[in-house]
Amino acid sequence: MDIAQLNSLSYEDFVDVLGNVVERCPLVAAAVWSGRPFASVSELEGRIHQFLDSLPESGKDGVLRCHPDLAGRELRSGTLTAESQAEQRQAGMAALAADELSRLARLNAQYKRRFGFPFVVCARLHDAAAVMRLLAARLGAERAAERERALGEVKRICGLRLIKSHLLPVCP
Amino acid sequence: MDIAQLNSLSYEDFVDVLGNVVERCPLVAAAVWSGRPFASVSELEGRIHQFLDSLPESGKDGVLRCHPDLAGRELRSGTLTAESQAEQRQAGMAALAADELSRLARLNAQYKRRFGFPFVVCARLHDAAAVMRLLAARLGAERAAERERALGEVKRICGLRLIKSHLLPVCP
C-alpha cells in the first residue's frame, strides 16, 4: 500500500490497517487520520510521534500501560496481539530458560513498582541478554526521563511495525 | 467492587475491569490509573472526563472514531464489543425494518462525510426513532460544537457502563 492509497482510506479502513502500530491504542491511528493527506509514510510516522508527544503525562503512561510484559503470562498463553507475539518470539522471549524467565519476571516487577508502567523495549532490536541488561540498568532511572525513554521505544516499535506492514520502506 | 478494591488494583487488572468504559480506548483507563487513590467512583468518572477533555482535538476525534456505526455491519456480524452490542440491541438497533435501516445508513454516511467521525449517541437513553431524529437534526451543526456534543455522549455512555459494571450506583 502506498501513501496515495493510505490517504484515500476511510477512517475505519485506516484504523483497520494501522490500529496496532501503537500497541492496543487504535485511538492513535484514529487521531492522526485527521492529518491527511500525508506527503509520505514518513510524514505519517512523524504525525504519530507528534500525537504521542502531545499527550498529557498520564496519557503517555497510559500508552505504556497498554504494552504487555516481556515474556509474561500473555506470551505463554498466546493472548498477545499478533504483532507483540511475533516481536517477542523473534527476541527469544519464548525460549528463555526457567532461571532467565524468573530473573526477567523479578526485574520487571521491580520496574513496574518503581515506574507504574511495564518495561517497554523494541524487542526486535535486542536479544534476550541485552533486554535483561537494559532492564536492570534502568531500574535506577528518574521517572520523567524513563517515561520519555520508554516512549522513544514505542516510536521505534511503531516504525518497525510500519516497515513490517510494507508501509515504510527499510532504510538502505 | 467498591472504590477501595478498585484503588488496590494493579494497572493490568484496572484496565481489565475498566478498559472499555470508553469504547475501544483502554488507553483512557490506563491513563487515569495514575490518579489513584480515588475518593469515590464518581471522582474516578470525573478523572475520565478530565482526561478526555485534555486530549488535543485530533485525539477527541480519535476517540469518536473508535466508536462503531449505529446499526452498522458490525452489529449484524456480531463483531461489536460486548458493551456496544448490548447497548445497540437495547436501543432497538437490531430490530429496524429494512427501510429504517437504509435511512439510518444514509444519514450516518452523510454525518461521517461532514464531520469525519461517526454519530455517537448514548443509545440506551433513546429509542430508534429518537436516534434517527437526533442524527438528522445534527447534520447541520458546526464541527467544533458537534465534537464536544459527541464527547458528551461518550461520557454518558461511560457513566452507564460504570453503572452496568456495578461500579457506579444508579442515582435515586
CATH first level of the largest domain in chain A: Mainly Alpha
**Shape descriptor of chain A:** globular
- Uncertain regions spanning at least 5 consecutive residues of chain A: none
Q: Find the CATH superfamily of the largest domain in chain A.
A: Oxo-4-hydroxy-4-carboxy-5-ureidoimidazoline decarboxylase
Q: What's the total helix number of chain A?
A: 10
Number of domains of chain A: 2
Query: Could you give a short account of the major beta sheet of chain A?
Result: none
- Please name the two chains that share the biggest interface, counting residues whose Cβ lies under 8 Å from a Cβ on the partner chain: A-B, 31 and 31 residues
Q: Structural class of the helices, strands and pairings of chain A?
A: mainly alpha
What's the overall average pLDDT of chain A, rounded?
93
Radius of gyration of chain A over all CA atoms, rounded: 16 Å
Tell me how many strands of chain A there are. 0
Alpha carbon gap, first and last residue of chain A: 19 Å
| Oligomeric organization of the protein chains | homodimer
What series of H and E elements makes up the topology of chain A?
Answer: HHHHHHHHHH
Helicity of chain A, as a percent range: 55-70%
CATH architecture of the largest domain in chain A: Orthogonal Bundle
Strand content of chain A: under 5%
Family (chains A, B): Belongs to the OHCU decarboxylase family.
Pfam families (chains A, B): OHCU_decarbox
Organism (chains A, B): Denticeps clupeoides (denticle herring)
Pathway (chains A, B): Purine metabolism; urate degradation; (S)-allantoin from urate: step 3/3
